[in-house]
Amino acid sequence: MRPFLSLAALLAFAGLAAPALAADAGVKEQPPRPVAAASAVLALDAGDIKASGLVAYKREVVLSFKVGGVVQAFSVDVGDEVKQGQSLAILDTAEIDAQWREVTANVEKARRDVQRLAPLVGQGFAAQARLDDARTALAMAEANRDSVAFNRSLAEIKAPADGVILARDIESGQIVPAGLTVLTLGDIGSGRVVKVGIADRDVVKIALGDAAGVRLPGVEAPTTAHVSRIAPKGDMRTGAFMVELSLDDTGLRLPSGLVADVAIRPRSQEESRVVMIPASAILEGFGAEGSVFVIDPATSRVERRRVAFGPLSGENVQIRDGLAPGEKVVSAGAGYLRDGDAVLVTDLVALRDGTAKPAQ
C-alpha cells in the first residue's frame, strides 16, 4: 500500500503543479534589449579647482568723515583718478568756523591776562594765585582751540594714496553722521586681485602661493596668478570661503568688478586617479547625485544604482562614489530599461541603425 500511496501523492502534486507551470509558460520573457556599454575606468585627475570671481584692487579703502555735518561739496566723481593728499570732499564748516573764531579769541584774552598779571605779581601788586589761575585758563583755552582745529581738519576727506574713486554713496547737501561711508577708493599701488568664493571641500586643498590661471573677458591668453589670501572664516549664508588671487602681471589695468574665470592648482595635491564614465550614462541628476544602469556580467541583467558624481571632463564625468573601476554601465539605450532587465551589449553604430549584434 505504501508505494501506491506515494505514487498517488506524487500524481496529485503533479496535477496541482501543472496549472502553475502552464501559467508560467504563458508569460514570455522579454528579449534582451540592445544597449551600448562602457567600463568605469581610472583616469588622472589634475586636481584643478575652478570658480568664477571678480577683479578688484587689493586694497580698497572706505572713506568717511570723522565728524557729522552737511556735505558741502565733492571735488571728485566715480572713475576719477586722484593723488595722495588730494581733497575729495568737505563738510559745511560754518559752525566749526564760528567755534574756531570763539576759541581763538579766548586764547588771545587768556594770554593777555597772563601778560598783564605777571609784572604785577613781581612788583607785589597782585597775588601769585591770580597769576596761576590765569595761566590755567590760558592752557584750557589752548586745549579747546586745538580740539576745534582737529575737528575742523576732520571735516575734509583727503586721498590716503594714489587711486581711483570706485564708489560715491552720498550727494552734496546731505547730512551725514560720523563714520558713514562716503567714498570708496581703489589703491592703484596695491595691485589687482581676483576674489573668488571657494567651497569648503575645496578650500582645504588650497595653500598660500598656489598657482592659478585666470581668464579675462577680451583677453585671449589666460594670465597667471597666485593665491595671496584665504579667508579664515566662511560666509554664513553660502558656506563659501573668500580666496584672493594676486595677478602676476602687475601692469594690467583692469576695471574693478570685471568677471574672471579661474583654475587653481593646489601644490599639496598630487595627481590622483579617479573613476570616469561617459556622461551619457547618467540617467538623471539631483545636485551631485544621479543613477546609472550597471550590467551584471554573469547574467547580462542591469541594476539601477545611485552614484555621486563630480565635474565633467569633456564627454566624461567623474564618479566620486557608487562605482568600482571595471564595472560596466549602460552608456546608450537606457531609455526604456527597468531594474533587472536583460540586455544585449552591442556597439553604438548597430544600436543606432537597429542591426544590434553582440559586441566583440
UniProtKB/TrEMBL annotation:
InterPro entries: BSH_CzcB-like (IPR058647), MdtA-like_C (IPR058627), RND_pump_MFP (IPR006143)
MF-aspect GO terms: efflux transmembrane transporter activity
Family as reported in the entry's similarity comment: Belongs to the membrane fusion protein (MFP) (TC 8.A.1) family.
Residues spanning the signal sequence: 1-22
Domain CzcB-like barrel-sandwich hybrid span(s) in chain numbering: 62-187
Domain Multidrug resistance protein MdtA-like C-terminal permuted SH3 intervals: 274-334
Keyword Signal: yes
GO cellular component: efflux pump complex
UniProt keyword annotations, A-Z: Signal
One matching Pfam family: BSH_CzcB
Record-linked Gene3D superfamilies: 2.40.30.170, 2.40.420.20, 2.40.50.100, Helix hairpin bin
Protein name: Uncharacterized protein
